[in-house]
Amino acid sequence: MEILLLNTLEGLKPCYDADFDEKKKLKLGSTYKANIKLYRNIDFHRKYFKLINLAWEYQNEAVQRHFKTVEGFRKTVEVASGHCETYYNKDLKSWVDAPKSIAFDKMDNGEFQDLYSRVKEVLFAVFLKNISEEEFMKNLVNF
Questions:
Q1: Alpha carbon distance 120, 80 (integer Å)
Q2: b/e burial code for range 99-135 (CB count within 10 A of at least 16 → b)
């Protein structure tokens, strides 16, 4: 069982309804062992995807056709930001870069904030050259 807990003065409390439902399954008075980790900020995670999706919306049709999907665009930007690993593709007979996972259990908050900053730099250096960062960030808040 894995649940998200908020540390309060009264003790650890479930964050979401699903977490509360899972906690209810635990027998009162029983002792449980837990591995406590600081969980990544879900709101920042959502902001990251808003950043990618808004940058995608700013792209013209030719760019969107090239990447086909916002997911392909996201992966390209992550690789360009250095968040990747290189492996040999025997079909292509060459080394290729593939984005690393950004799953919650693969990165902590610090690593994710660093990725966010590097991806933002790539977006403005390559894909949003003619857009002011101030204008973009205003639109990001409303996206």
A1: 11
A2: bbebeeeebeeeebeebbebbbebbeeebbeeeeeee
What DSSP string runs through 40-100? P-HHHHHHHHHHHHHHHHHS-HHHHHHH-SHHHHHHHHHHHTT-EEEEEETTTTEEEEEEP
Angle CA(77)–CA(58)–CA(74) in degrees, nearest 5? 20
Tens digit of pLDDT for each residue in 4-13? 888 889 888 8
pLDDT band at 78 (very low <50, low <70, confident <90, very high): very high
Q: What is the mean pLDDT of residues 115-138?
A: 92
The pLDDT score that the predictor gives to residue 31 is 87
Strands 11-14 and 84-89, sheet pairing: unpaired
Q: Rounded to whole angstroms, how far apart are CA atoms 65 and 54? A: 16
